[in-house]
Structure formats: C-alpha cells, structure tokens
Amino acid sequence: MADDWVKPTADGYNAGLGYALLRPSRTPAGMIGEQLGSHVGSSVEFMDYREYTPGDDLRRVDWSVYGRTDRLVVKLHREEVTPHLDILVDASRSMALADSDKPGSALGLAGALSAAADNARWSRRLYAIGEQNSQVPGGEGSPQGWVWPGFDSRQPLGNTPITAGLKLRRRGVRVLISDLLFDSDPWPIVSRLAEGASALFIVQVLATQDADPPWNGDLRLVDSETGLLREVRLDSAARDRYLQRLQTLRQQWSAACRRVDGRLIEFIAEDLTDGWDLRPLVECELLRLS
Amino acid sequence: MPILGVPLALIGLTALPVLTAIYWLRTRFRRQEVSSLFLWSLVAQAHGGGRRATRLQTPLLWLLELLALLLLAIAAAGPHVPRADRVVPVVVVLDDSFSMSAITQDGRSTRDAGIDAVMQELGRLGPFTARFVIAGPTPALQEGAISRLADIESVIGGWRCESTSSSIGPAVALAREVGGPDCRVLVISDHTSPDAQSRDNESNAEQEEQTEQEATVVSTAGPADQAGRLRWRAVGRTHRNAAIVNAVRSTDPQRDQVLLEVANYSDEPYNVTLTLSAATQIDNADSPQSDVLLGPARVIDQRVLDLAAHETRRLRLVPPKKDETLIAQLEDDALAADNRAVLLPPAHEPLPVRVSIKDKVLAKAVKSAVQASGVASLESVDPRLLITDRVGLTLPSSSTASNTTPDTTNAVDEQPAPIAPWRVEFEVPQAESIDAYLGPFVIDYNHPLASGLSLTGLVWAAPTADAGLPAVGRAVVSAGDVSLITERDLSGDARALRIRLRADRSTLLSSSAWPVLIANIIDWQRAELPGLSRVNAMPGMPVKLMPTSPVDHVEVMYHPLSGASSDEAARRIDIYNNTAVLSTDRPGIYRVSAGDEIYRYTVNALSPEESDTSQAATSEHGLWNDERALRTDYRGLAWILGLAALGLLALHAWLQYRPSGPSPAAISEATA
C-alpha cells in the first residue's frame, strides 16, 4: 500500500473500532420471494404477504389465497443473512484525484467497515474494482496487511460488469465505495450488486472540488481517467449547471438504490478524513455502536 | 492636434492595451485536473479549445469598456469638426523664383506641382475663399479671389516663376495683412521653410542652447515662426543643372570685356556646351513698340565646358565688336531660365577723371583706385571729375570755365588747376598739427559716398580740431568733432568734396575702404549723368534713368531674354527729381521710351541660390489651425464623446448589476 494511504486507512480502521456491523433488517427488493436457503444450508422463513405487482414471479403467487379471496398475493420470506461483508472499492484513477483525500478516505472507510465487521464477528473481503476486478490480497486481515493494487484503472466503473471475476458471498452485506463520477446508468450496477446480497450500501466519496468547484475563469479541464481535455469558462452560471448535474447524478443513484432497498451514503473526502465521523453509516443502519 | 501630443489622450490610449491585457490574462486557460469530464458536458465550452494559441475572446463588457476608453481618449485630444456655416479665408503665397520653373523628366514643372499642392490643400478645407500673393523680389497681391478650385488658373496668371529671388517673408506678412486675423496662409515653394531648416540644424545642439536659439528665432519673427495658421508646402526636387551665374560686361568701350561664370550644380561631372553669339540691336526709334529687339545672331564661339561636380568655371572673353549685343547660351537642361545671358554693349563712355596731386603716394593710390573702378578713365583734358590736393578752387561756369583762381593760400600747385564740374579736394595738414584718429568714426550712411564703407580699425590722420581750414558743407565722415569728409553743393551741377587726410600717417590707403570710397565718388558722379545708370543690370539692383529731355514719365516695355516679342502692355513709370527708377526684378530685355529717346537695359537670371536646386525638397510644415481657428471655425466634440462614454459606462453597469435577466456571464457566453 502506498505510504499516502497507510495513515488514513489506519485512521479509518481505528475509527471503525467503535462500531459494529448491524444485521440488515430489510431484504433487498430483488430478493423478494426467492427461496435461496438451500444453497446456504438454511431454510427460508415466511414473513408476510403483499399484493402482486407485474413482474413478480408467478411461482411465488399464493394460489390458495387467490382461490379463497380472488386476490393475487405473493408470499414474502425473510432471507437468511450470512454474516459476511464484501467491500468493493473503486480503483479508478478518479479516486486518486490530485490534491484530494479521496484515496485515503475510500481506503479509510474500507478500514472502518473492516473494523466494524471484526467487532460484529463477521467475515469480510475487500475487492478492488477496476479494469480487472480483483480481491485485495490480505483483505481479510488488518489494513496493515492489505496489498492494495492502486488507483490505476483508466476504465470508468460502469464500463465493465461490476461483479465480473468476483466471488461475492450470497446473502452477505455488500458495500461499494466510489465517487460514482462516470457517465453510466446506475441501475445495471446497482441491480447486479444487489443480486444475492442481503443488503447493499453504496458510499459515494467526493472530493471538495468535485462537490463544489472553487475555480473561476477559463479552465482547461483534464479528465483524470481518460486524459481528455475540455476548455470551459467557469462562472457562477456554469457552476450552477455543474452542481445541478451532480445533484441529478445523485438522485439517479439514490433512485436505483431505493429500487433494491439499498442505501446511498455521501461523504466529502476531506471532511471525512478530518474527523472520521461515521454517523452517516449509523444513520443508514449499516453500523451500530459496539 | 496630434492625439499623441495630449498627455491625457496618450494615457487613454495606453489604457486600451492594458485593458485588453487584463482580459487576455483573465481568459488564459488554466490547467485543472478533474475526476471526470462528463459532469462538465453541459457547461459552455470556450472557443478554440485544445489549441496552444487561442484567439482573444470578445465579451460584451470588454467591448463596452474598450469603446468607452477609446471615446475618452479621443475626447481628451480635443477633436473638432468644422462648423457648417464657416468659409475659410486663405491667402496663398506663391514662390515666384525661377527655380520653380524647373522641369522634371515627366515634363511637369515645379510650378505644376505647386498648383496641385494648392488644390490639394484648399480641397481639404471645405468652403473657402482664397487670394494669392506672388512672392517675387517684392510681394504682389493678385486681383480677385476664388472660392472654387476650378477658378484657380484665372488668378495665378501672374505666377510666371521668372524672378531671380523670392521675398516669402514679406509676402507672408502681406498675406496676413490682407487676410486678417482669421485667415490661413499657405506657402508654396521649392524649399523647406526656414523654421524647419533651423530645427534640422539645431537638432544636435544642447537643450539650453536650443531654447535660446528658438527664443531668438521667435523674436526675429520669421515667416514660418509665427504661430499657427501657416502651412508650408515644399514641392521642389533636385535637378541636374548647369547655369550661368554671373555675366558682366565692362562699361569701358575701349576695353570691352566679358566675364562669364558657369556653374555645375549637380553631383556629377557635366559636359555642357556654351555658345556665344553676337547680335545687333534693332534700334527703331520711330517705332518704340517694335516686336523684336535683337537682330539675327551669329555664333562667335562655341565650346564644351567639362565641369566637375559643383564646379564653377570663369571665362573672360573679348567681344569682336563693341556695339554688338553678346548672347551666352547653355544647352537645355531642367532649368532653362539660367541658361541664357544677354549683355548689351556699354552705353556710357568712361568717366574722365583728372588727378592732380603732388604727394606721389597719394596720387598713385588715387589713380589705382580710379582705374580699378572700371567706369572711369584718367584723362587730362575735359575731365568730369578733378581730384586734387588744392583746396578752394573756384568752380567753372559756362562763362568762366577757363578763368579759375584759387581762393586760398593753401594752394600747392603753381600751375593752373584743371577745371571740372566735380572736384575732390585733399586737405593735407602739416605734420605738427595732426592727430591720428582710431575712431569711432561717425558715418552718414544715407549719403551715397558711404555705401559699403567701413572704417573700423583704421588710423586716419587729420588736422586737429583747432587746426586746418574751417570745415564747410555737410559732414559725411567725422571723428569726434573733426570732420574728415565733407560735401557741399556748388553752383549748377558742380559739387565739391573735401577729404582731410595725411596719407603717410594713415592706414586708409592700404585698406579696402579706399577703393570703395573712390568708387563711390565716381558712381555718384556718374549717376548725375543723363541716361541709364547701367545697361546690364544685376537682378535686384534698380536701374536709374535720367532722360536728357524733360519728360514726366517713361514707358517700359518688357521682352524676354530671347529678344522676341511680348504681349505684355508697356508699363508707365513716373519721373521724380528727373529720375526714373526702373525695376530689375524680372529677367528680360527692357526698352524704355522717354519721349523721343529710347534706352535699353537687360536683366539676366543670375542667381546662384535659385540655380542651385540641391537644396530643393518636398515636404510639409506647419498646421492650418491654431487655438483661435479652433474656436471660430470648429465645434468641439469632446463633450459629446464624454457623454457617449458615460452612456456606455451606464450600460456597462446596468448589464453587470441588473437584478434580472441574463447574467453578464451569460452575455459573455453568448458573445463568445
């Protein structure tokens, strides 16, 4: 691991020692009605009924209820949760934006979640998501033993299947840490991540300059991933337009998360590394105080 | 007024590039790495992105600021526009010297270029009324005024460019007098203005010296130094020119000689052919208005003069016949006026002078000076002038011419003194009663004897104040209360001069003042003789005519130097004190009719200054307008420009701070 990221990672890990992962109380929407317990050696527990909506698996329709009441209802089951945490960290170059704390904060968050998982006695794995997804060697241990491949991927996150090459644990909790700054539909990513997961959390880490560009005048912008150039005149109107676009992006991700009963948490990297305030993770029911 | 000469305007102009630089620096692209570009896709992209050099952006606010600054800078320069109802009075001074008649290779003369310049300058003025002054030796105001360029030829017919000199300074003064305080003066010449020349000459002088010189120039009030409203257009060009710059014919018929000087004023050697011809005069007293003055000419000599650059060759010739007119002609070149000289045969016999002085030194000096004058001869019989050391001889009269006795005991010659109408008496004092005077000498320069006379530094030995004979008559030269030269009229046309001089104790005889004094005496006496004072006149030196018969006027008929006819009318010259003063301003042959008497004199274009065209130039100096002209003929625009600038600034402020509508940035984007 690069020296620049060791300290924030350790700081995040230390911050996470005061927390523990919270067992998900809700089942991701994509898993509703599925019986997946046979694969993990545990039965499926019936939880409730709800009205049929188009798209629901007809095999899950409770025909007996239909016969009695002439209403189409589907059976809801509480999925068995595997106590495992899969942490996926965006390894693209945008996460290592110059003059920002994005890489430290991303790995620090991973460290904090690792500490919380350890406190909850969950197993965990750490993955680097990039041109070639890979499990981080030593990711099951303490951050000092992580062999992080670096933020070198020139491929935006949405260009390749996000779970390709990964062995994510079914019914585990999955956390994606990324800046989400790529021009791609969030739904394929979110749906694929939610598939087989008991809970999905997407943590967006932005640099201050991503969230509120401080510049004025004419700028020659360089894409940190592709190296493409764009010359813009940045004034208040242009800044407003950028922020509006960023807000739209967040709304798209938030909507996609809601479809799978996942949660979107937003952090400003510089603010996070300043005090490692993890309360947003508690508020979204990912962590609890240990 | 040039905009660069106004400090505020200059500052305003300087602000323009500064403002542009500020905008340019603001529009330079700074490199900034961002996480991703896709969020910036909807932000306006600047033009020319990706190039190393980008063109200047032109936002509206910058244009408004630039325009406001420009208006303020122009307003600071004090721009003016002509009033709609103004009519500009102009007086044009035309250089009439013959150098303006030089012909270029394309066949156009300097005069033609001058006319073009006049039309060009007048055409710029708008409505005008112009009068013209011909600057010959004396300025002459032309009749009539024009207000249209098409009428210019009708009023400059007298601009012939034949004069041997041009009095531009007096002509400008006349132009100002005629035109009044509001007029503009335009000078057309082939030379630059004296003011411009003096500036060129002073360019290397130190600042303090330059200031003093300028003050001196201003105080002398030269034509071009008077501030404002004087514009000088020099339209001259240098030419390859050979000229006859001096032509003199002796007045002694017994020793008829001609002196010619031919100069090459070009920078290259010049082989020029000089042809000498002799022609008889057509002396038709019965027909004074005859068209032709000279008969057929016969060539008596022709030679090629191989002149080096800027060389002047002097030739002495003896005419074959003393009663023939001699014509010297050079081959044609750019300036034709100075290629011909006509020398008439002398009209007067030399003045007979008798010298009767015992002092050998003084007698020799007197004789030498008389012979050097060239217009007198030493005669012992019937002299017109007697120079003697006897004082107080009685004058001859028609009845007592042969019976003259001295009236003083100071006579030194026992023999009878010669008789003459004029006499010069040398009073030679004894050695024990003299004083040597070193000056200062008081000279009456209004007297003909004092012309060109300078006694500075001389020792003049004369009787003391209480010695010698009593001074009688008008004192011409004095030293303190001692009269050295006196003059008095005697009966009839006789005159007596007394010169009190001890020659051996003086330095007068060995000085240049001595031949001047004797020549003045002889010239003065000759001027009293009937007829023309000279027949081959130098330009600018007036010719006097004393008719033999009593008439109240004479008529002067001009002919060109070719002797051909002229369509000009004869000019009437009135006679005062039995003398007519005739002009020599224009080269030509003049025939003067005084009753039944016919006289001729010639004026040749002998002027090295005009023949030398090496100093001719094409340039422009001076400004039409001064402060007074700006007030009277123009309307100031500064306040209008100032208001316009304020309006632009108000628009600028409104665009920048208005509460609603597109922001300045949006305007910038739209403009970009």
Q: What descriptors fit this protein?
A:
heterodimer; A: 290 residues; alpha/beta; Rossmann fold; 2 domains; 6-stranded mixed beta sheet; two-stranded antiparallel ribbon; 9 helices; 32% helix; globular; B: 672 residues; alpha+beta; 4 domains; 8-stranded mixed beta sheet; elongated; disordered C terminus
Write the layout of secondary structure elements.
The complex is a heterodimer of chains A (290) and B (672).
Chain A lengths: L2 H14 L2 E3 L15 H4 L4 E7 L11 H7 L3 E6 L5 E7 L11 H18 L3 E7 L4 E2 L37 E6 L7 H9 L4 E8 L1 H4 L5 E7 L5 E6 L1 H24 L3 E6 H7 L3 H5 L3 E3 L1
Parallel strand pairs in A: 4-5, 4-7, 7-8, 8-11
Antiparallel strand pairs in A: 1-12, 2-3, 5-6, 9-10
Chain B lengths: L6 H20 L3 E5 L25 H17 L3 E3 L5 E8 L14 H16 L2 E8 L3 E3 L10 H4 L12 H12 L4 E6 L4 H8 L5 H14 L9 E6 L6 E8 L8 E7 L5 E12 L12 E14 L4 E6 L7 E6 L9 E4 L7 E6 L3 H14 L2 E3 L6 E4 L33 E6 L6 E4 L3 E3 L16 E4 L10 E6 L2 E8 L5 E6 L12 H15 L3 E2 L3 E2 L5 E4 L6 E7 L11 E4 L5 E3 L5 E7 L2 E7 L4 H4 L6 E4 L5 H7 E3 L1 H20 L6 H8 L1
Helix pairs in contact in B: 1-2, 2-12, 8-9
Distance between the terminal alpha carbons of chain B, to the nearest Å?
38 Å
Shape of chain A: globular
- Portion in beta strands of chain B: 25-35%
> What's the quaternary structure here?
heterodimer
- Which series of helices and strands of chain A comes N to C? HEHEHEEHEEEHEHEEHEHHE
Helix share of residues of chain A? Answer: 25-40%
Low-confidence stretches of chain A: 28-43
Strand order of the largest sheet of chain B: 16-15-17-18-24-23-22-20
Mean pLDDT of chain B: 79
Count of discrete alpha- or pi-helical segments spanning 4 or more residues of chain B: 13
